[in-house]
Each structure stands twice: as C-alpha cells, then as structure tokens.
C-alpha cells in the first residue's frame, strides 16, 4: 500500500473538514525532499513564473486574503532576497499542512512576518508597536478561528529585522524560546537578538493576559532563550536567509538534537548553494500548485502550455539533462538556463 500525499487528497472547501488517518500517517512526507530530482512540472511552473513580458502584479497565489504577486514570488530566484509575502504564504501553507500531521508529531502554529515588521520596529514607540501587534494577531485569528494557542506544542514567529530573516520558536515542549538563524552569531549579534526577543515576548505576554490567559502568559515569560547551533549554519550568507527560514519552518519539530534538514554544511563547496537553489524552485512549485491556491488550475494550465512551447523549441531538453547531472562544474549550465528569463 502506498501512503497518499496531501496533494493527492481531494480539495477541501472548509478548513475544519476532517482528514482520514491515511493522510495523517507518520510515513507521509510533508517536507520537500532534497534528494529528489527536478520533475517536469517543477521546470514548467518555474519557467512560467519567471518568463519575461508578463504582468509583474498578476496574482499567482491566492488563499482567502493571503496572496502573492508574480513579481514577489519571483524573488525565489537564486541570489535574490525574498520578499516578505513569500514567507507569509509559506506560513499559510505550513498551517494547512498541519492538518495532515500524525498523532506522534508535535502540533505547530505558524504566524506571519506581520508580527515582526511593525511590532519590532525600533522607530516606533512601544505602545505603537503593541497596537500593530494586536492588529496582526486579530487578523490571524480571523483566518484561523478554530486555532487555540494553548493547544500547540510549537509556535513559530518568522522574524524580519534589519533586512534579515530568522526564526523564533516558542518551544512549549522544551520550555524554551528557540532562536534559529542560518548565520552563526557571536555575542554582539546575540545582544541584538535579545532585544528583539524581549520585545516580542513582552507583546505576546501582554496580549495573552488581555485574553484572560494570565497563567499561560506567566509561564512563557519565564522560559529561557536557546540559541540553536546547527551544522549547516553559514558565516555570512544573508542572501539566502529567507530560504533557510522556510526550510527551518518546514522541518523543525522542537528536537534540535535529532533535527534533519538534509542541508549540507557550508564548507562543502557549492553543494549547499546547489541545495538552496533547488529549494527555491521546489518551493515555488509547492506554493503555486498547492491545493489551497485558488489560482492553481490556471497556473498548471498556463505552465503546461508554456512548457510545451519551450519543448517545441528544443530548449527544455538541454536544461533538464544538464541540471540532473551531479558534478558541481555543471552548475553553471543550470544556473544560466534554468533560472533565467527567455
């Protein structure tokens, strides 16, 4: 028996629709497999996304009031910094995927960057910050009215501060605030993190108290901070910080010692860079073809038409053949043909 994947599940119209046990099996892989090759549809969707001459402000992803324009999703191109709405879309998909979690997996909740961009802006007063924070929380729970904070094991806050993405996870299982960044940080940087985290904690604790959850607020305010160290951390890669963030959100289950991302160490030549480039394409495909994307059928139809056009011109065969080769020196072929416009 082959365990079905979430994408094979029938499209649902209501978030509260129950999912069969087969779709919540621990054998269902919910994260992107970095060991897999590019599929034909990966290529088709990617090339359709980045093609020249299209309306940059066309909405290519829509899920209720969460949306993303072509221009912004195209920041998944290698060597580009992600636009914040890509992370917000990813948070929405992560929350949706939690529907398929097995009974053994921790229950995770993913907020969006709106709880950091305004609420942690040093140019605003603390009162102004908190007002924005409350507005963001209210909007979030309008989208997820059945979500109960106290029921979750891990609560994720994707942070965008000083043009850098990283992740803060309220780990209720370990009773810690886990700070997760792709860059190895020294004491000076930790001081900056500490300021951000103190302000985030303060806003969150105050919000919980106002929601008559004083006992919970008091408990999390006393939790220690843990700055995680991972083998795949980098020295100064700020360009790919958004992609690292998405991978961390996708794979972290609260157990740092047994955490598996499949990411290579930075010292492994171009291997880690190649993995990050692959994730950019795989993530674009995952977002655009997600069953929650209201533009999904349009995207698949148009990308198939565009693929057929390229295939007819003989361009795609060369790209696909060259990019499946594993030798690092072939990376330049893939980079020039797969990631660029016509």
Automatic annotation (TrEMBL):
Pfam families: Peptidase_C48. InterPro entries: Papain-like_cys_pep_sf (IPR038765), Peptidase_C48_C (IPR003653). Residues 66-252 form the Ubiquitin-like protease family profile domain. PROSITE patterns: ULP_PROTEASE. Keywords: Hydrolase, Protease. The keyword Hydrolase applies. One of its GO terms (biological process) is proteolysis. The keyword Zinc-finger does not apply. GO terms for molecular function: cysteine-type peptidase activity. Belongs to the peptidase C48 family. This is Ubiquitin-like protease family profile domain-containing protein. It comes from Heracleum sosnowskyi. The lineage of its organism: Eukaryota, Viridiplantae, Streptophyta, Embryophyta, Tracheophyta.
